[in-house]
């Protein structure tokens, strides 16, 4: 079978669904690769590079749609492109089936199969095919770069002979894939970064990247679990939204750059940054709205445009951030397509096995065998496992605590008495056959082992290093005993005494060395 990538016809779209590298991998799966002439030029991939990778280059889009059994695209097909679909052909692209019912009907009428890359379920096994995350990662990075391009100062603070430059303050609203990418880029550029998300469980991720989590005082019971929406932040109650806007109004005057990323699939973007918040911001501030395609999180956002408000705030509503980094975007998206084809070709024989029992393939399939299969059933594996809330341990009464302590003491006493009894019986058994001179030393040895065990065993592990002093004392005793025996007339006793002195000396000097190094860790110099 042949897999082909046409040139994107939408104005300004520079990405391509197949790169020379991904074509090589697809050929290993048994497919022949076809591409329209000039399809990768805007992304920096010349036709010669495709030919060198063994890809057939056809002159027109019509020729490609006719030659390819599987068509890989970036954007959803236009009406004209949908008419080129044919029976049994497979289309793989961003499709947004919830908003494109007419396109689904057109594909159904043509008998084509449609795999929507935006519908790949968010489960662990499908991360390698998650094109939405790939593009969101680039969008978050590019949003910070775009903000810096329109911001009149450094991100990082500087003190120079020419004056002091304060660091920029950046607020990222939404800590999904795009938000985390924006946070990482902003902090790496030296800005003081704040981030907000309705899911309190992402606070640790935000803080681990060097940003400060904007905490909102609200009951946990009022926060829906993101597992219900496939990992996306779920819609909030009016009370929560009011509290959220109140918090944003409080911090708006201090923010230099605001990047909003809040978007839920198949819904209009929620308004999070209102007109009055923009008016509170300082002249020269920047708002980058990554949700502009769905109406925008900022009330003043204009889709695909950059505007400057009366108070000098720049609001960027571009919807093509991934396309502005076409080479990187195309590489990641082509890799997502290649992984999808790997799942579709388990035998690596160049033929598609469209297994509708597979959670990932079924979840991404919008049209299959003359039937619309959207919406898909929920995956058998939860997108994000909801963490069960551990029930707090019941508060014990003083009587119950006392009863527990008594029971523990009795159990410990029983164990100790049992061990002592067994030990005494063993000593008596040895005494029946051993001479009295031996038993005197043996009983002292057993008692010393028992006492030493009780002393050392009951010390916490964190205090083992200070016990070096104790081990040194024990080693010193061993050395004294060995010195007394080293002049023995028996060669064996002399050798054993010498070995005892050597090993005890190693223990003593090693103990001092380790203790010295441990103490040095807590010294300032």
Question: Could you name the key traits of this structure?
Answer:
seven-stranded mixed β-sheet; alpha/beta; 16 helices; elongated; 525 residues; single chain
What's the overall average pLDDT, rounded?
Answer: 87
Strand content: 5-15%
Strand order of the largest sheet: 3-2-1-4-5-6-16-17
**Major sheet characteristics:** 8 strands, mixed
Q: Kindly, what is the distance between the CA atoms of the first and last residues, rounded to a whole number of angstroms?
A: 69 Å
Low-pLDDT ranges: none
Gyration radius, in Å: 35 Å
Please tally the β strands and state the result.
17
What structural category characterises the helix and strand content? alpha/beta
Number of helical regions: 16
Q: Approximately how much helix is present in the residues?
A: 40-55%
Principal-axis shape: elongated
Mind sketching the topology for me?
Layout lengths: L1 E4 L14 H9 L3 E5 L10 H6 L3 E3 L2 H7 L2 E3 L6 H4 L7 E4 L7 H10 L2 E4 L14 H20 L7 E3 L2 E3 L3 E5 L3 H12 L3 E5 L6 H6 L3 E2 L24 H14 L5 E4 L14 H6 L5 E4 L16 E3 L5 E3 L9 H19 L14 H6 E4 L2 E2 L25 H34 L4 H22 L10 H18 L5 H30 L5
Describe the structure.
The chain has 16 helices and 17 strands. 42% of the residues lie in helices and 12% in strands. The strands form three sheets. An eight-stranded mixed β-sheet has the order 3-2-1-4-5-6-16-17.
């Amino acid at each position: 079978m042949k897999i082909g990538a046409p040139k994107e016809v939408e104005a300004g779209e520079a990405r391509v669904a197949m790169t020379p590298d991904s074509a090589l991998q697809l050929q290993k799966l048994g497919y022949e690769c076809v591409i329209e002439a000039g399809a990768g030029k805007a992304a920096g991939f010349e036709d010669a590079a495709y030919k060198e990778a063994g890809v057939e280059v056809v002159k027109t889009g019509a020729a490609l749609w006719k030659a390819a059994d599987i068509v890989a695209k970036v954007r959803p097909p236009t009406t004209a492109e949908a008419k080129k679909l044919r029976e049994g052909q497979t289309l793989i692209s961003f499709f947004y089936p919830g908003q494109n019912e007419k396109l689904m009907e057109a594909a159904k009428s043509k008998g084509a199969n449609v795999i929507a890359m935006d519908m790949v379920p968010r489960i662990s096994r499908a991360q390698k095919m998650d094109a939405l995350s790939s593009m969101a990662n680039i969008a978050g990075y590019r949003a910070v770069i775009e903000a810096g391009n329109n911001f009149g100062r450094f991100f990082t603070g500087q003190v120079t002979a020419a004056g002091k430059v304060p660091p920029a303050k950046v607020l990222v609203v939404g800590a999904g894939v795009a938000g985390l990418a924006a946070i990482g880029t902003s902090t790496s550029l030296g800005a003081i970064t704040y981030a907000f998300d309705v899911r309190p469980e992402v606070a640790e991720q935000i803080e681990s990247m060097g940003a400060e989590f904007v905490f909102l005082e609200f009951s946990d019971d009022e926060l829906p679990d993101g597992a219900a929406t496939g990992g996306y932040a779920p819609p909030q109650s009016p009370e929560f939204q009011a509290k959220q806007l109140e918090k944003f109004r409080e911090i708006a005057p201090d923010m230099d750059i605001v990047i909003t990323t809040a978007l839920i699939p198949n819904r209009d973007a929620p308004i999070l940054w209102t007109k009055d918040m923009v008016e509170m911001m300082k002249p020269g501030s920047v708002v980058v709205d990554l949700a502009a395609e769905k109406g925008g999180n900022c009330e003043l956002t204009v889709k695909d445009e950059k505007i400057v408000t009366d108070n000098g705030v720049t609001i960027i509503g571009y919807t093509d951030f991934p396309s502005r980094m076409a080479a990187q975007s195309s590489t990641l998206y082509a890799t997502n397509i290649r992984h999808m084809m790997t799942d579709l070709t388990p035998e690596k024989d160049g033929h598609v096995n469209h297994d509708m029992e597979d959670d990932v393939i079924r979840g991404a399939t919008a049209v299959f065998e003359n039937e619309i299969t959207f919406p898909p059933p929920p995956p058998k594996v939860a997108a994000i496992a909801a963490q069960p809330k551990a029930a707090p341990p019941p508060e014990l009464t003083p009587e119950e605590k006392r009863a527990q302590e008594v029971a523990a003491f009795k159990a410990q006493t029983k164990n100790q008495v049992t061990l002592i009894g067994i030990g005494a019986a063993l000593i008596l058994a040895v005494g029946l056959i051993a001479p009295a001179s031996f038993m005197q030393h043996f009983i002292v040895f057993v008692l010393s082992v028992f006492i030493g065990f009780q002393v050392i065993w009951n010390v916490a592990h964190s205090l083992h290093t200070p016990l070096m002093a104790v081990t040194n004392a024990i080693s010193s005793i061993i050395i004294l005993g060995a010195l007394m025996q080293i002049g023995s007339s028996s060669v064996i006793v002399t050798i054993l005494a010498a070995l005892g002195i050597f090993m005890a000396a190693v223990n003593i000097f090693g103990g001092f060395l380790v203790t010295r190094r441990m103490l040095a860790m807590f010294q300032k110099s």
